[in-house]
Amino acid sequence: MRRLSLCLLAAALPAFAADPFDDYEPVENALVVAAPAPARDAADPAVQRGRYLVNLLGCASCHTDGALLGAPEEARALAGSGVGIAISDPLRVRYPAVVYPPNLTPDPEAGIGEWPEEDIVRLLLEGMGRHGGRALPVMPWQSYARLTPEDATAIARYLKRLAPNPHQVPAPVAEGEPAPAPYVHVGLYQRR
Ligand code: HEC
């Protein structure tokens, strides 16, 4: 019989233990993070639709500081997460690769201020990053790929109308390097 279980675990540079699960503690993470009001063009129907979709699709539950640990900083909703997500298997390697959900406000340096709307649409519908590389599957674009182009454009338009926030998230961490900030491990496991 096969069993699947979904785990959300957090680590903060623990001492390594014989059982890798000893390095982790479960996180209570039952929350909804609201998409903030736009700073401009609030009456534009596409911006309103974009905000509705960002609420519906839960973007802020990753792209907000603290949210992955169940304690979101609502005032910095969508301005990126200083809590990362492990993208290689921490049950196999001591220091997994970690990525920090980026700042989605239009700050030109810390956020997506330089991204044209078309690039945001392409990322949502095709998983393509700005420079051709595929976005990591931990950014769940596969779940967004069936959005209509109009809805994906509405999301892009809404994000570009947020107040720019200069919050910098840590750079991605390669496997084998200790992460500078806490991270969670989200996994779907199949019993052998
Ligand atoms: C499960 C967590 C999670 C959710 C939910 C999520 N994202 Fe992401 N997102 C990420 C991660 C992690 C990355 C970085 C991916 C990479 O480096 O390849 C990312 C990258 C991005 C990027 C690229 C930004 C950049 O500077 O590289 C955009 C734009 C984006 N997400 C928008 C969204 C939108 C819009 C939603 C909701 C419709 C959303 N994300 C939902 C985790 C998430």
Q: What's the short version?
A:
This protein has 192 residues and is α+β, with helices and mostly antiparallel strands.
Set out the fold topology.
Layout: E1 4-11, E2 25-26, H1 45-57, E3 84-86, E4 98-99, H2 117-126, H3 149-160, E5 183-190
Parallel strand pairs: 3-5
Antiparallel strand pairs: 1-2, 1-5, 3-4
Helix pairs in contact: 1-3, 2-3
Bound molecules: heme C.
Heme C (HEC) is lined by residues 54, 57-59, 61-63, 85, 99, 101-102, 104, 112, 120, 123, 129, 135-136, 138-140, 144, 155.
Overview of the molecule:
Residues 45-163 form the Cytochrome c domain. Residues 1-17 form the signal peptide. This is Putative diheme cytochrome c-553. It is built from three helices and five strands, in the order ββαββααβ. It has one domain. The model is unreliable at 1-7 (pLDDT under 50). It is globular, with a radius of gyration of 17 Å. The protein has a five-stranded mixed beta sheet, with no helix packed on it. The longest helix is centred in the N-terminal third of the chain and has 13 residues, at 45-57. The protein is α+β, with helices and mostly antiparallel strands and 192 residues long. Bound molecules: heme C. Residues 54, 57-59, 61-63, 85, 99, 101-102, 104, 112, 120, 123, 129, 135-136, 138-140, 144, 155 line the site of heme C (HEC).
